Amino acid sequence: MSDRAERQREFMERWEACIPATSPAWEQKRRLATAMRRVISHLVQSNAPESELHQAAEAMERYSERLASHPTLRRAGRDSQSPATPEEITFVDQSPFAGLANPLAPPIRLEEDDAWAVVGYVTYGAAYEGPPACVHGGHVAAAFDEVLGFVQGMSGAPGFTGELTIRFRSPTPLHRRLRIRGEIVRVEGRKIFAEGTLHAHEQLCAEAEGLFITPNPEQYQRMLRARDERFDAQGG
C-alpha cells in the first residue's frame, strides 16, 4: 500500500469512528439538534400569529435557561497522530457545517471517494436562502471550506485555511440534494492544495480552490491553551 493510500485509510478510519453516537445522552443531543433544525426551518417561513410566537419564545427562553444550568462541554482539538478520542468525536460532531449535534449545521454528510478525495451531500432549506429559491453564496463558500478542509486532513498533516477561491457557475438551488466533491491536488511542504466542485444533479453550480497551511505544533498548542484558559475563566 502506498503512503498516500495508507494515510487516507487511517484518516477515514478515524472519521468513521466519529460517526456513531457515543452514548444515549449524545444520541439525544443529536435528536435535539435535529428538532432545532426543524424549528429554524419552520420559523423563517412562518406567518404564525403573535400569540403563538409569544408562547414559543417563552418556552424556548425557559429551556435555554435550563440548558445553561448544566456544565459546559470542554472541546478538544484534533490530534492526527492518535486514535479518535471522545474529545475528537465531540469536535467533529459539533462542526457548524457537518456536525450532527450542531443545529446550525445543514448538515453535510461526508464519505470517501477516490484516492485523496471525498464527496459530501447536503440539502439546504429555506433558512439558507440568498437569491430567490437559491442557497446564499456565503453558505456555498462555507460548504467548500468544510469539504476541502476535511479532505486536506488526508495529507497526514492537516492545516488551516490560507486561501479559498470560489467561482460561482450557476445559482445553487434550495431543497435539492447537492453533491460537493473535494480532492487534494498536491502537497508542497506545509502547503496543501485542494480543489472542489458543487453540483445539483448534473448542473455545475460552483468550483473552488483552497490552500491550507499546516501550523507548527507550538502554534497549535498555544491556541489550545488559550481556549482552555477562556473556558476555565468562564467557570467551565
What does this 3D model show about the protein?
- A hairpin with a 2-residue loop joins strand 5 (191-200) and strand 6 (203-213).
- The chain has a 6-stranded antiparallel beta sheet, covered by helices on one side.
- The protein is of the alpha+beta class.
- The chain has helices at residues 3-17, 24-45, 50-68, 86-93, 137-151, 217-233; strands at 109-112, 117-122, 160-168, 178-188, 191-200, 203-213.
- It is 41% helix and 22% strand.
- The chain is globular.
- It is built from 6 helices and 6 strands.
- It has a single domain, classed as Hotdog Thioesterase (Thiol Ester Dehydrase, Chain A).
Helix content: 40-55%
The first-to-last residue Cα distance is 45 Å
Q: Largest sheet, order of strands side by side?
A: 1-2-4-5-6-3
> What is the H level of CATH, i.e. the homologous superfamily?
Hotdog Thioesterase
Q: Could you give a short description of this structure?
A:
With 236 residues, this protein is of the alpha+beta class. Helix content is 41%, strand content 22%. It has a single domain (3-23, 73-219), classed as Roll (Thiol Ester Dehydrase, Chain A).
Could you name the key traits of this structure?
single chain; 236 residues; alpha+beta; Thiol Ester Dehydrase, Chain A; 6-stranded antiparallel β-sheet; 6 helices; 22% strand; globular
